Amino acid sequence: MTFINNNNNNNNNNNNNNYNNNNKSWGSLSSFYPPSTIDSPSPSPSFPSFFSFPSFPSPSPSDVQILKASLSTTAISTTNTNNSNHPLSSSSSSSSNPLPALHVGRETMVFQSLMSHLNTSVSAGFDYSVVPLYDERYQYWLGTALSPEQKEKASHSAQEGGDPFLQVTSWCNQIVGLLSPRQITHESLSLPFPGAPSSSHPTIKEQIAWATHLSLPAVLASPPPVDCTLAARYGQIINQALLGLSFTCIWVEVPLQDELKTVKLEDLPPPPPPIGASSPLPASSSSSSSLSKPSKSSTWWRWCKLREMCDYHASLFVVIVLTPDLPHENDLFVWESEPVRAVMVPSDVFLTNPYGYPCLSREHQKFLARMFRQRVQVIVRGDSGEVSSENSQDPYLQYIRYLQRKSLQISDQDAFEEPYYDYLQAPLQPLADNLESQTYETFEKDPIKYWLYEEAVYKALCDRREKAEKQEEGIVLMVLGAGRGPLVVASLKAAERAEVKVKMYAVEKNPNAVITLKHMSRTRGWEGIVEIVSSDMRVWKSPVKADIIVSELLGSFSDNELSPECLDGAQQFLADDGISIPANYTSFIAPVSSQKVWKDVRNWKELKQFETAFVCKLHKFVELAPAQALFKFSHPNREEPINNTRYDKKVFYSKGDSVIHGVVGYFESELYADVLMSINPDTFSDGMISWFPLYFPLRSPMMVSEGERIEIHFWRCVSSTKVWYEWCVSVAEREISAIHNPNGRSYYIGLST
Q1: Residues 6+ positions from 566 with CB-CB distance below 8 Å
Q2: Out of 107, 338, 436, 552, which one is annotated catalytic?
Q3: Which distant-in-sequence residues (6+ apart) come within 8 Å of 709 by Cβ?
Q4: Catalytic residue status for 552
Q5: Rounded Cα–Cα distance for residues 711 and 730 (Å)
Q6: Residue 277 CB contacts under 8 Å (≥ 6 apart), including other chains
Q7: Does the annotation count 561 as an active-site position?
Q8: What is the 3-state secondary structure (H, E, C) of 386-446?
Q9: Which of 561, 623, 668, 706 is catalytic?
Q10: Residues 279-335 pLDDT 10s
Q11: CA gap 314, 255 in Å, rounded
């Protein structure tokens, strides 16, 4: 948990500048320094972790060195997973992991004593309470004592008054303030006016100021109004309040279902005939399509406008309110990319099962399950009635916790990846930088990738068994980019399984890794079998031709770590009938909505960052259409002359209303025969942890409606010194972005060592 205050924001900016001034890569699967311990200062003991405030990843210069270069590896294969040698066949891979903490609050409008109410809520199992900051009937502030007259008036109602001596830790840990009024009108936004009497209803800003004074972690604001003028005024008030906050956040309530109902055009009466016409228009001239929602007037659109008016402020979040009827699926998925802090579940949404206990419909359960994966909180609105004497927990609360246990299973891969969710990392510069030992160690912890390589080498050796019997040295196998030896080990295992003799060359340009390779050769008995070569594969003069070359040069986008350029230079010592592993690889792209990562890119406040591709394990995101294949490279490359520049345009149709924040990149690779290694979601190799997707930001987000055409133009450019990408996006031929990263001015991969 990170708390944002003015000092922290300044530190973030300073650290971001340090990152920009550092040309070396940073980022990824460091087992020693997970991001959660790097980008966040120690949490204040006065605040609860369940209010987790927003943070921006911003490693210090020392952290940059510690984490340099770690995450551009690979995913797993979907083939042959029934093999007993497959790492996932072990029962240890299915070990259970603890569920993330689910924090549940209760909204209460009426209570006798705040202290008593908090104690009752805690006893019932709730973590915090959502209570009004200002009592509209008796006109007093939360946490203040009443005058004798007010006490006398309150004595005849259920509400007795405030608690002036409530401890600060209770304000910080157990209370979210509820802003009033709950329905925004012109009158509520215009009062009080300058010089108004003190009894006038306090403004939203005054209520937020009081919440900040009490050290409340958050306030819950009313839904954005439908009226455009009201919405603009409401946005101005919220935005002004946000600019004055240090740690208190604003949660905006947004119901899932729009007040306006879906209407089918065929259900409407026919339009009147044109002037002068004697009969109505023919049936063929009227559309029979269904209006799935009022254009640009759904609750998400209203939230989107408010978020835009507040310039994506880091302290602005949304609380989704479940409605008895849920909207169409295409209106639900969009929330997965929004900064949802909690889901509000009103008591009237619950059903009653045959045993008399509360439950939710199957569709509500599915939606909550999706939100649980986003690590949101839950707020129960309304009274659950009497609490059972056998169990003091609130029945609504019990059911919600049951749903979480039922719907959310944390795999080992999930547990490993969670510290890296939505965490931006710079991709490797494979030729410019030599990897450090801990980076190699991180890569080597992925057993699936090396099992796939072993399987590919095994099948290739089996296909070359006859040739091996005719050669004294057997099959000549070269590992290009051997690192600390995991591919050497995998290849030797494959040779043992295939019962094929091999002569191996392990080529590595990093002199430090070569030292480790030579040590392994001495201690593991590789002498005479494996020859260690300290050289760049592009310039090494091989004494023999290779029957098989094996390399692991792939990046998150397949070719973004210069695998084509490296292997093209190395194929000079591959036999005419030689095999390359991998045989080919293809990049994939899709339009993506992810407010979280886009805001983190913007936080650097530089054009350079918007024209840089980032490795990122996207979590709070929505892929707006299935990924499509982009660039393919095959080896050996028999083109004359070899040309690795590429251009392509891909057309997508958005599955719903959303905002495009960038392009996500994946890859698939056929290692050999039917051995597939992929991080493309449609063919993902289960269990792989070596590669996260690549994220290409857009400078300005682009609004898109359901079914609208999205075009993505992509270039892979090559010069004598560097390789870079350029990209641009257009929506429905009405809006087009700038071409990002022209001439590689902000981001490129250098060809020189």
Answers
A1: 430, 431, 480, 481, 537, 538, 551, 553
A2: 552
A3: 651, 652, 653, 731, 732, 733
A4: yes
A5: 5
A6: none
A7: yes
A8: CCCCCCCCCHHHHHHHHHHHHHCCCCHHHHHHHHHECCCECCCCCCCCCCCHHHHHHHHCC
A9: 561
A10: 343 333 333 333 333 345 589 999 999 999 999 999 999 999 999 999 988 889 999
A11: 21
Strands annotated E in 582-642 = 584-593, 614-615, 622-623, 628-634
What are 425-458's pLDDT values in tens digits? Answer: 988 787 778 888 888 888 888 889 999 999 999 9
The whole-angstrom separation of Cα 446 and Cα 596 is 28
State how far the Cα of 693 lies from the Cα of 676, in Å rounded to an integer: 17
Coarse DSSP helix, strand, coil percentages of the chain, rounded to the nearest 5 percent: 30, 25, 45
CATH architecture of 584-750: Distorted Sandwich (2.70)
Residue 88's pLDDT is 53
- What are the domain boundaries of the chain? 104-185+202-258+296-382+391-420, 437-552, 584-750
Q: Which residue has the higher pLDDT, 392 or 114?
A: 114
- CATH number for the segment(s) 104-185+202-258+296-382+391-420: 3.20.20.150
What CATH number belongs to 437-552?
3.40.50.150
- What CA–CA distance (Å, rounded) separates 154 from 131? 17
- Specify whether the CB–CB gap between 482 and 506 falls below 8 A: yes
Say if residues 131 and 117 touch (Cβ distance below 8 Å): yes
* Cα distances (angstroms) measured from residue 197 to each of 142, 173, 194, 431, 665: 20, 34, 9, 71, 59
Query: Among 176, 189, 180, which residue's Cα sits nearest to residue 215?
Result: 176
